[in-house]
Amino acid sequence: MTLTERQLICPNRHSFDIARQGYVNLLPVQQKRSRHPGDSKAMVVARSRFLNSGIYQPIAQQLTERVRSLWGEKQALRLLDAGCGEGYYLDYLVRALSSRGTLDAVGMDISKEAVAAAARRSQQISWVVGSNARPPLVPGLDLILSVFGFPSYEGFQPLLKPGGHIVLVEPGPDHLIELRQVIYPTVKRNPPPELDQAERLGFQLTDTQSLQYQTAELDHGQIQDLLQMTPHLYRATREGKEAASRLETIQLTVDVVFRTLERQT
After folding, report:
1. What's the average model confidence in pLDDT over 31-36?
2. Is residue 2 included in any domain, yes or no?
3. Positions of E strands within the chain
4. Which of 40, 44, 56, 250 has the greatest number of CB atoms lying within 10 Å of its CB?
């Protein structure tokens, strides 16, 4: 596409306006499963408040160090945060690595509300409304991040250079276990998903790292924001939601797994 002052224009003369916040919506109507796919405005606001508190900053720090390691000796890095949400992790990473070299970073999410919030967070990053199943980017990426997201290996595979990587950041078995014990009758300690589909498409698991820590005590507002920003609020029973609404404080286990996949040549 060709970038004009306020539009992206394709060779067939289709134009896509750049919103006043600085993002572009490249999600065709036919790829939407609902009128407003992805996170709602309420979820985005809750997530922004929670992440800005710094409770998950160790996750952002470890992700940044993983990207630094994968960058290696290359002068430039082309990176996509697929399912960027309101931009907290990508913004943290770009700020931390800004002096490392040329970092061409794109944040993409299917939620227009999330991408609009991300664009308000940082004007140094390109923000796009799009689908992981059909990312509207040209091939040639070095790295794709999927942070608590929904990776589409079929969508990612054509974008990555041979030798390129995907970094998955996923809940470990004990992630938020104390809160889950409040809102669910029984709690399963499930490991991250299997990688069969990724392996069939030519990806190989090359590295696995874990991060575990205890948070300070969360107050009532932080507990409600955390519930609002995760699927747990919608999966919980009525009794579980009522029990969570009565919590004044809670200390939580953060258990996160970082897995790196490499696209084989």
Report:
1. 52
2. no
3. 2-3, 7-9, 15-17, 24-25, 76-82, 102-109, 126-129, 141-147, 160-171, 203-214, 218-219, 249-250, 253-263
4. 44
Whether residue 19 is contained in a domain is answered as no
The answer to whether position 31 is within a domain reads: no
Split into its structural domains, the chain has a count of 1
Q: Cα torsion for 224, 226, 227, 232, to the nearest 10°?
A: -170
Is residue 47 within 8 Å of 73, Cβ to Cβ? no
Q: Which two tokens stand for residue 240?
A: 């579980």
pLDDT of residue 230: 87
**92 in a structural domain:** yes
Q: Please state, in angstroms and rounded to a whole number, the distance separating the CA atoms of residues 45 and 53.
A: 13
CA dist 198 to 11, 62, 142, 222, 248, Å?
33, 23, 17, 35, 42
Distance, CA of 231 to CA of 229 (rounded, Å) = 7
Mean pLDDT of all residues belonging to the chain: 89
Query: Pick from 264, 51, 259: which is nearest to 145 by CA?
Result: 259
The full length of the chain comes to 265
CATH number where 161 lies: 3.40.50.150
Across 33-39, average pLDDT: 59
* AA letter at 12: N
Model confidence pTM above 0.70: yes
The three-state (H, E, C) secondary structure of 148-179, written as one string: CCCCCHHHHCCCEEEEEEEEEEEECCCCCHHH
Q: How many CB atoms lie within 10 A of CB 25?
A: 17
User: Model confidence over 145-163: pLDDT tens digits?
Assistant: 999 999 999 999 999 999 9
- pLDDT above 90 coverage of the chain, percent: 74
Range of the domain at 128: 38-263
Q: Taking a C-beta distance cutoff of 8 angstroms, is the pair 265, 162 a contact?
A: yes
* Average confidence (pLDDT) over 23-30: 62
